[in-house]
Amino acid sequence: MSSPATLGELRAAVESGRVPRRTVRQEVRENLIGKLASGETLFPGIVGYDETVIPQLVNAILSRHNFILLGLRGQAKSRILRALASLLDQAIPVVPGCEIHDDPLQPICSACRARVAEEGDAMAVGWLPREARYVEKLATPDVTIADIVGDVDPIKAARGGLQLSSDLTMHYGLLPRSNRGIFAVNELPDLAGKIQVGLFNILQEGDVQIKGYPVRLPLDVMLVFTANPEDYTARGKIITPLKDRIGSEIRTHYPATRAEGVTITAQEAWLARDGGLEVRVPQYVREVVEEVAFQARADKKIDRRSGVSQRLPITTLENVVSNAERRALAANEPLAVPRVTDLYTALPAMTGKFELEYEGEMKGAETVARDLVRSAVANVFATATESLDSRTVVDWFDAGGTLQLGDQTPSLEVLRQAKKVKGLIELAARLAGEAEREMSPPVAASAVDFVLEGLYAMKRIARSEERGYHASESGVRRPPRPSESVFDERFPAPAQGGKKKYYN
Questions:
Q1: Parallel, antiparallel, or unpaired for β 170-172 and 221-227?
Q2: What does the H/E/C string look like for 378-398?
Q3: CA-wise closest residue to 473 among 463, 483, 482, 485
Q4: Bridge partners for 215 per DSSP
Q5: In whole angstroms, what is the distance from residue 99 CA to residue 179 CA?
Q6: Angle, nearest 10°, between helix axes 441-457 and 365-384?
Q7: H/E element holding 128?
Q8: Between helices 441-457 and 391-398, what is the axis angle to 10°?
Q9: pTM, two decimal places
Q10: 78, 128 in Cβ contact below 8 A?
């Protein structure tokens, strides 16, 4: 059925019930109820909030509240706000050309009222799509009342012979242009106090003063905000009257489990590379990348008040894949499989994602990041090898064996050297979840790298630029002393009184 094209057709459609007429918050509430009844996913792409944030958000919408999301950076606050647009109708009728999307059946601006009176039921009706009804503004200290609410245009007043207090002299800001839609403000406390005053007047009374003139704007707007909890306090930069007028405060959080974090990172990271090169990311690499973020959020050398964004594992995984891509291209391999050591090449994607405390500043961001990677590898490896025995591999290094490998070592060369270590290939295959004979060289090389880095992270073997992987200081076998020597049966001890010989 086609949409009404004139005011008369629209009036008839509203009277028959074909076109609903309701406020924005009623509209969002009723559409949410429809989604709940049908079992439809409310906010696709939002992971880990099903039992915490989403129920509070649903309650706020059902209560027809303006609300604020409080959380640290990288907690999907902006994504949640943008997803609210899916609760709006596909399109609504508006007066064509009106800057504030006036309702043809009940216009609030003088120009639209005059037009309706002049043209009557023959007036054309426009239709505004849902995506045009969501407006978002990042709050910064330089935002003015003119940006948000509007300003008096003296040229309009002079040309039309109007009083400056007339709404016809207004140059509308973002908030009036969001009329009959959703207006979102990110980082609300960064707005200057007088802008916040303008917002709470609109919230409660529907009016505002501009240049000393009271302007009545009975807008139909759903207002939603985000803020950092540290700023949204009595000591912060939020004014109490505005805080009092916001219906619900909803706390967001970082992923509660590593599995949730892995799901979010896999959803957001760009991993499918072009150029015909296949990319396969092992599960243990994904878990180590995610564990880095968990370690950072608990590290005392990192400022917890600023948080560690979920963007850290996302950008880190992208860099890890890029290093694997570079290695595969250089070795002419058709499959790029990231290795755990690739995380050390991804430090530039980590160091800018956290703020350091004094102790961390003394060590340096790169050193802190390296420590985080090593701790993350140790945690993931300890879990993965809980029921596996790696003593055979460690014994080989304790006996003096060394492996010199780098992050750009081709897969076949990694495997050639790994075959010298008894039990290494077999242990790698079990960690990779594949049979040894079925593993492709890049997959096998990545698994071998995980074993070596895991043993190094757990301090069972050592690693250095000069010697590569070698025995840890505590595990090096020293030559036996005479008092504790044990001779092989093939080399019996000399006769008493003769000189003893020792063999390693």
A1: unpaired
A2: HHHHHHHCCCCCCHHHHHHHH
A3: 463
A4: 208
A5: 9
A6: 110
A7: strand 126-129
A8: 70
A9: 0.84
A10: no
Greatest Cα pair distance in the chain = 128
Which residue from 3, 11, 29 is spatially nearest to 129, judged by alpha carbons? 3
What's the pLDDT tens digit per position in 181-240? 999 999 999 888 888 887 877 777 766 666 666 667 788 999 999 999 888 875 568 888
Cα(439)–Cα(428) distance, rounded to whole angstroms?
A: 10
Give the burial class of 130: count Cβ atoms within 10 A of its Cβ; 0-12 exposed, 13-18 middle, 19 or more buried. middle
Torsions phi, psi of 247, nearest 5?
Answer: -65, -50
Write the CATH number of the domain with boundaries 7-251: 3.40.50.300
What is the bridge-based pairing of β-strands 134-138 and 213-216? unpaired
Q: Where are the domains of the chain?
A: 7-251, 258-471
What one-letter code names the amino acid at 188? L
Phi and psi for 133 in degrees, rounded to 5? -100, 5
Strands 221-227 and 181-186: parallel
The total of other beta-carbon atoms located within 10 Å of residue 110's CB is: 13
CA-to-CA separations, 504 to 112, 461, 467, 475, 480, in angstroms, rounded: 99, 21, 21, 16, 9
Give how far Cα 151 sits from Cα of 126, 168, 191, Å.
26, 11, 17
- Position 331, amino acid: A
Reported as a single tens digit per residue, the pLDDT across 359-373 is: 999 999 999 999 999
Give the span between the Cα atoms of 491 and 504, in whole angstroms.
11
Q: What distance in Å separates the CA atoms of residue 76 and residue 12, rounded to the nearest whole number?
A: 42
Task: Tell me how many helices (H) and strands (E) the chain has.
Answer: 19, 15
Residue reference for tokens 């750009």:
408
